[in-house]
């Protein structure tokens, strides 16, 4: 079987690395990790555009911080959102007016099964201090029998299946919101006090799928107490037409094989 050259970052979580399986499913090719600074073309679908070369073929990726400088000579088929598009154009690059995130396509790879077991699923960014160590179970807030804390370090199918038994998702993690939107789950953006997680990637994503007048903002929480989480009301996700995004990238016709 042919292989397809793909770059992903070693520190990516299992959920973020689900794009590797997604590329395999979409291309019928085996992804082969390829360095970002080599002399051969490669696909990139992740967060953070700095450090990529002009040979990158970029689909659904986006900036990780305000002031990022994406490679202007890379080939962009779709980007995460308008902030990424502006950043590319400010560097003299060409960015299509087409937004999408690969993790939103996970239902095609893993349909899962919806049920209503919890009012709210909480999925934190792995960089948040409250995230348990690998192999440890999250600690539920006192009295929160209707809340499920989901460990972002779990296997990605486990994360998805736990999300699907919740009526809504509260997440401080870009990947959590992308997956929630892909599965049509009500979602809310939360930020914990003192969090060092940059907001730009999430703002980039939300602005791609909500008109400006909706003014989507984060719930700023003091902690993960039941009192704090009780104020979180997930909003209904927008109706999505991901077909143009999906059709914008034909892996087998674009090289890097």
Describe the model.
The protein is α/β, with parallel strands linked by helices and 257 residues long. It is built from eight helices and ten strands. The chain has two domains: 3-100 and 243-253, no CATH class; 112-230, no CATH class. The chain is globular, with a radius of gyration of 18 Å.
Total number of domains: 2
What's the SSE pattern? Answer: EHEEEEHHEEHEHEHEHH
Give the neighbour order of strands across the main sheet.
2-1-3-4-5
Number of helices: 8
Helix percentage:
10-25%
Task: Identify low-pLDDT runs.
Answer: none
The shape is: globular
Strand count: 10
Please report which band the strand proportion falls in: under 5%, 5-15%, 15-25%, 25-35%, 35-45% or over 45%.
Answer: 15-25%
Q: Main sheet, how many strands, which sense, barrel?
A: 5 strands, parallel
Structural class: alpha/beta
Distance between the termini: 11 Å
* Rg on CA atoms, Å: 18 Å
Mean pLDDT over the full residue set: 90
Oligomer: single chain
Which SSEs are present, and which pair or pack?
Layout: E1 3-7, H1 18-27, E2 30-33, E3 42-44, E4 56-61, E5 75-79, H2 82-90, H3 106-109, E6 120-123, E7 147-150, H4 156-163, E8 169-171, H5 174-182, E9 187-192, H6 200-209, E10 219-221, H7 226-230, H8 243-247
Parallel strand pairs: 1-2, 1-3, 3-4, 4-5, 6-7, 6-8, 8-9, 9-10
Which features characterize this protein?
257 residues; alpha/beta; 2 domains; 5-stranded parallel sheet; 8 helices; 10 strands; globular
Brief overview, please?
The protein is an alpha/beta fold and 257 residues long. The chain has helices at 18-27, 82-90, 106-109, 156-163, 174-182, 200-209, 226-230, 243-247, and strands at 3-7, 30-33, 42-44, 56-61, 75-79, 120-123, 147-150, 169-171, 187-192, 219-221. 23% of the residues lie in helices and 17% in strands.
């Amino acid at each position: 079987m042919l292989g397809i050259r793909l770059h992903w970052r070693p520190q990516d979580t299992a959920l973020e690395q689900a794009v590797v399986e997604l590329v395999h499913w979409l291309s019928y090719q085996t992804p082969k990790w390829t360095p970002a600074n080599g002399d051969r073309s490669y696909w990139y679908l992740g967060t953070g555009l700095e450090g990529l070369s002009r040979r990158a073929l970029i689909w659904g990726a986006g900036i990780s911080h305000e002031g990022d400088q994406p490679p202007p000579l890379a080939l962009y088929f779709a980007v995460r959102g308008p902030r990424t598009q502006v950043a590319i154009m400010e560097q003299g690059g060409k960015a299509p007016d087409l937004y999408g995130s690969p993790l939103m396509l996970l239902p095609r790879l893993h349909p899962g099964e919806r049920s209503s077991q919890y009012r709210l699923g909480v999925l934190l960014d792995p960089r948040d201090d409250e995230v348990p160590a690998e192999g440890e179970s999250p600690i539920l807030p006192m009295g929160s029998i209707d809340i499920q804390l989901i460990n972002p370090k779990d296997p990605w199918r486990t994360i998805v299946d736990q999300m699907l038994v919740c009526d809504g998702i509260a997440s401080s993690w870009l990947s959590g919101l992308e997956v929630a939107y892909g599965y049509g789950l009500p979602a809310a953006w939360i930020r914990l006090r003192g969090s060092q997680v940059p907001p730009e990637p999430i703002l980039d994503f939300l602005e791609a799928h909500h008109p400006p007048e909706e003014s989507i903002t984060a719930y700023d929480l003091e902690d993960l107490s039941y009192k704090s989480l009780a104020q979180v009301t997930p909003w209904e996700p927008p109706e999505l037409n991901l077909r143009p995004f999906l059709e914008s990238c034909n892996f087998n016709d674009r090289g890097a094989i």
